[in-house]
Description:
- The complex is a heterodimer.
- Chain A contains ten helices and twelve strands.
- Chain A is α/β, with parallel strands linked by helices.
- In chain A, strands 6-7-8-3-9-10-12-11 form an eight-stranded mixed β-sheet, sandwiched between helices. A four-stranded antiparallel β-sheet of chain A has the order 2-1-4-5, with helices on one face.
- In chain A, a hairpin with a 5-residue loop joins strand 11 and strand 12 (319-320).
- The longest helix of chain A is centred in the middle third of the chain and has 18 residues, at 193-210.
- In chain A, 47% of the residues are buried.
- Chain B is globular and about 55 Å long.
- The chains are: A alpha/beta, B alpha/beta.
- At the A-B interface, helix 7, helix 8, helix 9 and helix 10 of A face helix 6, helix 7 and helix 8 of B.
- Adenosine-5'-diphosphate binds at residues 11, 20, 22, 40, 42-48 of chain B.
Amino acid sequence: MALLSIENLHLTIPSFEGEAQILNGVDLTLERGEICGLVGETGCGKSLTGLSISKLVASPPARYRQGSIRFDGQDILGLSESAMRALRGRRIGMIFQDPTTNLNPLFRIGDQMIDVALHSTGANRWSTSARREARARSIAMLERVGIQDAHNRLDDYPHQFSGGMRQRVLIAMALIGRPDLLIADEPTTALDVSVQAQILQLLFDIVREDNIAVLLITHNLGVVARLCTHVAVMYAGRIIERGTMADVFNRPRHPYTKALLNAVPTQKTRKGTLQGLGGSVPDPYLPHAGCRFAPRCAWAEARCSEAVPPETDLGHGHGVACIKAGDLA
Amino acid sequence: MLQVKGLSKIYPGRRGSPAVTALDDVSFTIAPNSAFGVVGESGSGKTTLTRCLIGLEKPTRGEMLFEGRDIARLSPQDMREMRARIQIVFQDPYASLNPRMSAQDIIGEPLLIHHDRLQLTARARTDRVVELLERVGLGVRHLHRYPHEFSGGQRQRIGIARALAVKPQMLILDEPTSALDVSVQAQILNLLVELQDSLKLSYLFISHDLGVVRYICDRALLLLHGKMIEEGPVDQVFDHPQSDYARRLIAAIPDVDPARSLHLTA
Lengths: 329, 266
Ligand SMILES: Nc1ncnc2c1ncn2[C@@H]1O[C@H](COP(=O)(O)OP(=O)(O)OP(=O)(O)O)[C@@H](O)[C@H]1O
Ligand SMILES: Nc1ncnc2c1ncn2[C@@H]1O[C@H](COP(=O)(O)OP(=O)(O)O)[C@@H](O)[C@H]1O
Ligand code: SF4
Ligand SMILES: [Mg+2]
Ligand SMILES: [Mg+2]
């Protein structure tokens, strides 16, 4: 059984404009040792997929109308908040894009880290021996993510750390409970290339040493190509193509995946020849039928708008949700 | 268009800490209608350079000649006029938009600030705002929405539309696409290329995405601790870098080729 398996997940969020259909049948599986890149344009539902796995979408008002999320056999959507708190930070580690989950500027790095460490074992936070043990684990984890002289830096405040160091601290916090699954939403977006390269190497080493699974949410396809073993491409709340990195990046079959890959300037792209992708993602408030990529798709035909294209398996788990999946080499 | 000669900026150390040399003898020229890239790790002095160019910081030494006149020696009146000719696009889409203003107000604000010169009617301003929204991949339905109703990517598109509003001659783009999707990034990059062509714009383009700099820029400057490490045509800087530092930086650039995967090279 897969460590994580999401099946046909539908999520709606009400607002004064009506009911937004945020997730429209997400299918995704993740095994230990896999690093799956979840990519797609802004607003397509990547973050809400990640938040759903940790059951952090307030519901109500949001509603899961269909589908399931199973983590190591447990039905996440059926779990109580207290059962969920036991999973978060222990079995599921998270680094989120939402700045409110980042470091609090008013508290010392060490105190924030030790709180997370205490939660991860469920230890009594007022026990001196538990705090001492949590402190030791915090230092060890900070050193593992490359913070030098960690025991002296615990008393520092976040502003005394550089952006790359703060990102390492967030990774250390997410990993201190030794989770089986790490959900990382844009973990390197704000970093420059050399720091980004170090962080990617760090994540790669941790996955190999601890055999954990990572869901890496990013819009940077270069980061995915460098780090991921698998890729899931999302559009309008659905995974429209998924498979191994080599299948999806070297042999993309969905028109949307092809368009995304063509939009990245490479060494050889001459000025003015970059193939942009026209149009924009559909508004989740508007009603729709059939393939939601059709208005932007160069291969669209009338029948594309009749029914939602089912996923076709082209072999080895290379799934493509396009009626022309087999024809578009 | 812009000539920077021997520019240095030293921040005096506060409370006993040593002074910081943020820029150290930097010189370059941006020709009219060309794009100039500035690349460097964080803390290398990129933002200090832009702050000097828009008059927010006085350089310690050196000159910045915009069409022959030193930016550091302009009267407040001339500086105001200069600000319309050099517009800046900021990096952080969360911090740079006023949460209490609608998209229409945010994008239209520069049109009001420079009303003396532009003389647009309210109707013409709205039309221009709609045109700008469409150019950055949004539309008329977004006119009356507020920043919190937009995703991070959409907010950045609004910041770019805002900078384009007064049709400046030079744009300073500080990491303008780092928060954008590749699809939008491609649209924006193509838009920048097209605008540069049609409006004869110059760009000072700051980025840590070397692929993007290479795509957009004619020349590039590599900074390390405020010093120039490489400067020249992009092909020369990226294909035949002279320094080890430049070679390491270039090797770290992520690129969509799976052949450079850590899994394959480990
Ligand atoms: N709390 C909310 N209430 C209503 N709509 C929301 C809410 N959060 C997100 N949305 C909408 O849900 C859709 C998916 O948002 P999500 O944040 O998951 O996108 P994303 O792919 O992560 O984008 P980005 O890369 O910009 O973060 C968007 O249309 C967004 O406007
Ligand atoms: N107001 C300031 N006072 C003291 N030092 C500063 C100030 N602003 C920037 N610096 C220092 O100048 C150097 C360059 O900073 P900056 O131009 O902001 O870098 P970048 O934008 O490339 O990240 C850094 O070492 C930074 O810490
Ligand atoms: S189903 Fe039709 S519209 Fe959708 S991606 Fe495939 S060809 Fe294009
Ligand atoms: Mg997101
Ligand atoms: Mg900066």
